[in-house]
Structures are given as C-alpha cells and as structure tokens.
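User: quick one, fold this
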Amino acid sequence: MSVAQSASHVDGRTARRARNRDAVIDAFIELIMSGQNDPSVDEIADRAGVSYRSVYRYFEDRSDMLAAATERSMQWIRPLLVNASGPVDNDAPLDHRIDAVVDARAEVYAQISDILHTALMRAHEDPYIDNELRKARDLLREQIDVRFDQELSQFSARERTLRLTSIDQTLHFQSLDYVMRERGHSRDELERYLRTQVRAALTIPEPD
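Assistant:
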C-alpha cells in the first residue's frame, strides 16, 4: 500500500468513526425525544446501527455520552430560546405582547419538552447541564424584562423585581413541564393559564 493509499485509509477510518459517534449521539437524543428518559446502551446501539461494543470505543462511559448529547442538544435549543418571547414590537398593545410571549414559550416547550425533562432530572448531578439551564433562565428573564418594560416601569424598583420574578416563574419551562406533564393539562389550558397569570402580574396595582 502506498503512502497516499495509507493516508486515505486512515482518513476514511477517522471519518467513519466520526459518523458513527454522531449516529450514537443522535440515537441517544432521538430516544429521549421519543419519551425514553433512560435508554439502554443496547437500545442506543440498535438505533444508531452500530454494535454494543463499538459504543464504548466512541465514549469513555455513559456520562461521557450524556455530556456529548447534552452539548449537541443545546446547540439546537439555544436558537429557540433566543426567540422564546416572540418577535413582537415592545411598543405593541399589552395583549399582543402577552400573546406573543405565551405562544412562543409554549411552542418552544412543545419542541424541547422531552429533552428538557431529562435535562432537569440530571442537572443536579451534571455541572454542564446545570450551567446551561442557568444561562437559559437568565436569558429568558432578560427577555421578559425588556418585553414588558412599559408596564413594569410603573412599579417601584423592589416591586418591579417581584413582578418580574412572578412572570419569570410562571413562564419557566419547569413550570410548564409541571402543568403539562404532571397535572395533565392541555396546551390550550396551559396558554390560558399563562395569559391570566402574566396579565395579573402586570396590571394588578402595587400594594400601598
């Protein structure tokens, strides 16, 4: 075998390894997205079209695989979070802004609910996941602060912070997960509840 043929063989093997590793990550994510919160290595390997043994040639252990899957998922989720408060003019009527926020947040939740549910369960033991979720929460809170600045500005500084926290908590993905997954409410019921809570936080007068 010539040097060129040898190099081509190595490059081909490296590319195949990368493809198989990506296939394992994608299979892991797909299984979680289908509702399997803790898929076995056999299930992952079968979905990826690789052998059980080969999975551990691509990853040191299950935690390494989870970290890779989480990083891949966050690459997909981040752009969704950027738009999770809706593409609406901040000077639009309040009802329009509330509708935009609620519609956008509910839609993003619908797209990421299964992977999010798994991430929330694992955040306490995985610093990377916990950090990514914290950054997402900070981003979403900032979006709400900007979106409803007109209404929040009527309150004192301390009351504004409290009202913002109320809205932030109401629209928190973990809160949506509770309403939909644990309490079994429909998406229409969820959106009606969110609109009511957000409007109340923005319109009920500050206590004397």
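User: anything notable?
Assistant: Residues 150 and 206 are 15 Å apart (CA to CA).
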